[in-house]
Amino acid sequence: MWTPFRTDDGSWTLVHSGHGEACHSLAGAWQQARERYAGPCRLAELARERDVVRLLDIGTGLGLNLACALAALDGTPARLEAASFELDPTVLRAAFELRDWPAEVAPWIARAHDALARELQSPGSTGWLRLELGDAREHLLRTPRLPPFDAVFLDPFSPGVEGELWAPEFVAEIAARMAPHAVLSTYSASFKVRLALAAAGLEVGKGPRVGRKAEGTLAGKRSDLPPLDPRTTRRLSSRCQRGGLRPGA
Fold first, then answer.
1. Would you call 97 exposed, middle or buried from its count of C-beta atoms within 10 A (0-12, 13-18, 19+)?
2. How far apart are CA 27 and CA 225, in angstroms?
């Protein structure tokens, strides 16, 4: 089901043979993990302020986002606690077969793969990672709201492939489990996705340009996110008001 593809920064991704989508940006899988997720979610900054950084990772994929989260906490006193949701375990087994990672990536992907393999064999054995296989919606409903998550990586396949993981109901469940300082980051800049985030009571901002993609989306309960363009802001406000909601309420 999975075809290996070496991306432009030398790191690997996997392409699904059914719908043809890749798990990461072809311009650089590690670059995307670093600049789309770990950086904008301010993991290194959080790790200097607290003993534990709690991460919700939607779409485990190859484990690259988890690996980058570990790298972001390197040299800090904080430890990572991550809940990672993946529908298809075959992507993990395909990822474990990949070799010859760039030197920058190798130690972190090795740690992530070791933890993921242990979780597959004996759930709960790693101490820092909780891997949930199957329907992420069901797993999230069973996840307590306290303590809240400090960061969210929303990285499933596109809304056209995994629409249920972008639906307003699922997004609202994620928002209910986010700390006041938390940032959610996703590669999607879809208006429908941004509307779901705003309707869930989150402030919505513009994510950074990464690779060939012009921008992504950030969201949180904080007001210091990079602003969206005025037209999109007006559209979100108008749609939320028509639904009896206020963006960020």
1. exposed
2. 25
| pTM for the model | 0.95
Query: For residue 58, how far is the Cα from the chain centroid?
Result: 5
Question: Which strand ranges, in their side-by-side order, compose the sheet holding 203-206?
Answer: 129-133, 79-86, 52-58, 149-154, 178-186, 217-220, 203-206
- 4: tokens are 């290996």
Q: Angle at the Cα of 225 (from 224 to 229), degrees rounded to 5? A: 120
Beta pairing, strands 79-86 & 2-6: unpaired
The runs of H, that is alpha helices, within the chain are: 29-32, 43-47, 64-72, 90-96, 106-121, 136-141, 168-175, 191-199, 230-242
pLDDT, tens only, 101-117 = 999 999 999 999 999 99
Q: Are 206 and 58 in contact (CB under 8 A)?
A: no
